């Protein structure tokens, strides 16, 4: 893997394909967790009693054990988003002063701890807090993984590599349905969370022991020794003429100045994102899209069971989602590469695929028989998932290199806080009111048309690919030289100013 001029060469073992493979496994485990908590085996159901015979059935899973109504159940599905929304911009900002690779290790450590906590929770509030911490742990990975992949992917296959990474979203969610259904029914819903923690454990360890990689648009860490030696010399000379209390005051002033500079830099970067028309249109369309996808992923098995009386909705929805998600996501990436990967072409694919997918999904829920639903819903999901690579391609390409982590973080924050965070509880409220899953599903699916319309506007914007432009921050070595990799030991980097 070739290094950029002035950067520390990447470790020989950590090839681009291995990086992609590891990130795909981590992303899959993240979404296995989301699918598992939505599965009937883990999520469960409230106790029920028949009016005629008076026979009562005991509750099961999280909902049964904690006696949650549909609104609380929907809140539980969205709780991890709170941590994700708060922590994503923080991790993106820290990437400018700490090693992004180490930050991923920190985040995955928090995720592993929090998922373990979900398995030992004892009421609604305890599991809700643990779900929030799951979001904090995931935030670093969501913000930083895509820029790493974009840097290391072959030029002619960048969208296909992104598609491979984002393919793990539907695949992981679908596997989570199956995993949660099997583990929850055979053992206990708590065991599903403990199994996830064991699967994730090797990756935070790897994030700390591996030599960190560098991101395009961020200065390398080789000047760390030089900066450290200069600071040591300054400290030694200061001992001769500066009192200890004065040195403490100077250090405190410097810390305050660093925080102020970090906040100023963050505000400037945010302003730049908000003035980017392509970015705003892309995120608005993604919000509408994710509003539907989020509610689909959580309420899908229950809606399918109610409408079509499926014998095993976890396996059926899991099977449809994993096949259509993999084929659709990879297909979207390959098609965009074949069309020539540009922002304008990405908007064309986004609007067209979403419009057609919305039509097929809407017709699917109108079918009375299960076979018709499966055929049309499968085609709809193939088209809907074709958007995963193009939408993230736009977020990476419409900003300069050093803004990519923040671009991904704000995109993630936006699609969740305005998309799937409110959608699951709102659909729960709608269902509580009308008590008809078919009508609830039709109302939800219609939001796809809004997403298609917003992305259609993007086709007519004057788009510019900024990812290859020189970033003025890269030349500011006087500022970037102070970067320190989080929790890293001694560095072998050369000392250059």
TrEMBL record:
Q: Domain Major facilitator superfamily (MFS) profile spans what residues?
A: 19-470
Residue spans crossing the bilayer: 75-94, 101-122, 128-149, 161-179, 191-210, 279-299, 315-335, 347-367, 373-394, 441-461
**What does UniProt give as GO cellular component?**
membrane
Protein's membrane topology: Multi-pass membrane protein
What Pfam families does UniProt report for this protein, alphabetically? Answer: MFS_1
Q: Kindly indicate whether the keyword Transit peptide belongs to this entry.
A: no
Q: Alphabetically list the UniProt keywords.
A: Membrane, Transmembrane, Transmembrane helix, Transport
The UniProt entry's sequence similarity note says: Belongs to the major facilitator superfamily. Spinster (TC 2.A.1.49) family.
Name it.
Answer: Major facilitator superfamily (MFS) profile domain-containing protein
Question: What organism does the UniProt record list as the source?
Answer: Lotus japonicus
Identify the taxonomic lineage of the organism of origin. Answer: Eukaryota, Viridiplantae, Streptophyta, Embryophyta, Tracheophyta
